[in-house]
Design goal:
Layout: H1 3-19, E1 29-33, E2 39-41, E3 45-53, E4 61-65, E5 77-80, E6 92-95, E7 103-110, E8 115-120, E9 123-128, E10 135-143, E11 149-161, H2 163-172, H3 178-189, H4 193-205, H5 212-241
Parallel strand pairs: 2-11
Antiparallel strand pairs: 1-3, 3-7, 4-6, 4-10, 5-7, 8-9, 10-11
Helix pairs in contact: 3-4, 4-5
Length: 243
């Protein structure tokens, strides 16, 4: 057998050996017991357990993070099987079990709030955080004994649904006037949620016989309230900058 033929046979045998390796050693596997939904309401409580297997041999520490916030007295992260103590501090660094055996972690928390309500005299301003997606139930990554990051990682994301936002968008979709839709959306985004909804209701009911004067009156009233709120907020900001 020539040297070239021997090398070709050697390469073929190596390829066959790689193909025959068990799939279980391919990499990290994250099992989720009672997987949480992809979308939750703000403040909704979520409780589930993740089990890590196929942990890389070089891993010394697993770092777990979550965008959930603590709910009640229950810890955010509760490792089992010798994986360290429960904690509310994230990201949490947990030791990898000896021998690279599986690690289970209970995650219990609630979705963060995205609604902020501010009372400005007689005017209530309600604003919503524009970020309502891309939150993480968990982020898992590993480091070796020297703290160097390893390539293996896993993340599960969720979104936060806000009924008030969805309901207002549904109202806008029923209004044909593009100027009115833009005007109402602007009021809503500035925090005048109640006023924007009231005007949207007026606009939708015009076909039911509601006089136009009510719509105009509502717009004028909203403009006055917005002006008052702007003056009040501007006064507070100016006063806060004085020494």
């Amino acid at each position: 057998m020539t040297a070239q033929a021997a090398a070709a046979v050697s390469h073929l045998l190596l390829l066959l050996a790689l193909l025959c390796m068990p799939a279980g050693v391919a990499g990290l596997q994250v099992g989720v017991e009672e997987a949480p939904p992809d979308t939750v309401a703000e403040g909704e409580v979520v409780d589930f357990t993740i089990t890590l297997s196929g942990i890389p041999p070089a891993a010394d520490t697993v770092i777990v993070d979550t965008d959930l916030v603590q709910q009640g007295d229950t810890p955010l992260l509760s490792p089992s099987g010798g994986g360290g103590n429960a904690t509310n501090t994230t990201p949490a660094s947990l030791p990898v079990p000896a021998g690279g055996s599986g690690l289970s972690i209970r995650i219990h928390g609630q979705a963060p709030a995205v609604t902020k309500v501010t009372q400005c005299g007689a005017v209530t301003l309600t604003t919503y955080d524009p970020k309502r997606s891309g939150y993480a139930y968990y982020r898992v990554r590993f480091t070796d004994e020297k703290g160097r990051p390893l390539a293996e990682s896993d993340t599960r994301l969720f979104s936060i649904a806000v009924d008030a936002v969805d309901e207002f968008r549904a109202k806008l979709n029923q209004i044909s006037d593009p100027f009115m839709r833009t005007y109402l959306q602007d009021l809503f985004e500035k925090g005048l949620v109640n006023e924007a909804n009231a005007l949207a209701d007026y606009e939708m009911s015009r076909g039911a016989g509601v006089p136009l004067i009510w719509t105009v009156g509502g717009i004028v009233l909203t403009a006055v309230l917005a002006l008052i709120a702007g003056i009040w907020i501007g006064g507070r900001e100016s006063g806060g900058n004085e020494e």
